[in-house]
Amino acid sequence: MMKIAEDDLADWLRLLLVDGLGSMTAQKLLRAFGLPYNILKQSHGTLASITSDRIATDLRAPPGDAFQKQMDLALAWLNSPENHVLTLDSPYYPQFLLSTADPPPLLYAKGRIDLLNGAANLAIVGSRNATAQGISNAEQFAHELAAGGMNIVSGLALGIDAAAHRGALAALAKNQVCGSTIAVIGTGCDIVYPARNRELAHQIAQEGVIVSEFHLGTPAMTANFPRRNRIISGLAQGVLVVEAALKSGSLITARQAAEQNREVFAIPGSIHSPLARGCHSLIRQGAKLVESAKDILEEIKPLLSVSAHSLCSAESSSATSCTSVESASVEVSDAAGTSDVQQRILTALGFDPCDLDTLAARTTLPIAVLSAELMMLELDGRVEKRPGNVFSQRVH
């Protein structure tokens, strides 16, 4: 599996390490000028037309000590075969995540990156201070869903998250499935937090994958954990909330899942339990009440035949075969030009603005595939995204 080239890594880090340049500003620059190499060649005035004068100045400045430190860390980290850096233009970047409003421009991943494009990913989230019953429910649901062929996505926190990861790994250990588990963390990918989950993290890195948008060496900071929740939901077909108080990060994840057009499931609990109130609130707002893993599998499995990627890639480190999930393969464009799939999209788009649903009907492509290819065409300067999720070809 080819890793990111050193020059490309340097360009992406120079862009993303600019102080105050968040993922949304990075996306504006990428849409306007293409890949970081092109952004860094622009004049100050051209950059300032898209972003602030200070950020334009910083983008034009020579790389500083912070860049060199991060570059050295990344290159040393990439020496391990299980470590990867995935950028928006990488063929291994998670396609479901590309279809969201705020995909991270760069991801660090440790382990089986094929799982990030799994056709059957389900997030399980809940309270860090879970009850014994909540822990049991999370483990049991994760085990049965993994046995049904699903990859379990969670956040490696104490409580429900750790239980969900353990349940999926227990199913995998029995060689029942090719489903595994994905941990989305709020620190650098070279840091384990909380320390109590160190052994679990090592097991996930071997059997599943750990992923983070935060640069190497980033410590645990409160603001980072709600932000990583959009990745948890964005990687998955749906989100199951096991236990949650009325004010909790799990409800943030559920809200983001709904905004990303994902399924939201919730397990009901005792009317006397504070940790059931969040789930009950979600159910009142339209989340699907579930009592068994079968309830979720019946909802999710019909969607899998139109998913962007196979659950098990040919490059998976696991030798277990996966036959229960249908999938459509995605052609990846090479450096020479436009792929057949992208040309199909451009032909269907024509020269008049077109919304995503209409374009999906014209091309008969799954939404996840279509969104991913449109992002690539945007980065290439071939397509322009307009307000209202409407697209048009750029006229040069």
Automatic annotation (TrEMBL):
Ranges of residues in domain Smf/DprA SLOG: 85-300
GO BP: DNA-mediated transformation
Gene name of the record: dprA
Name under which the protein is recorded: DNA processing protein DprA
InterPro entries in the record: DprA, DprA_WH, DrpA_SLOG, WH-like_DNA-bd_sf
Biological source species: Ephemeroptericola cinctiostellae
Domain of life where this protein originates: Bacteria
Domain DprA winged helix, residue spans: 334-389
Family that this chain belongs to: Belongs to the DprA/Smf family.
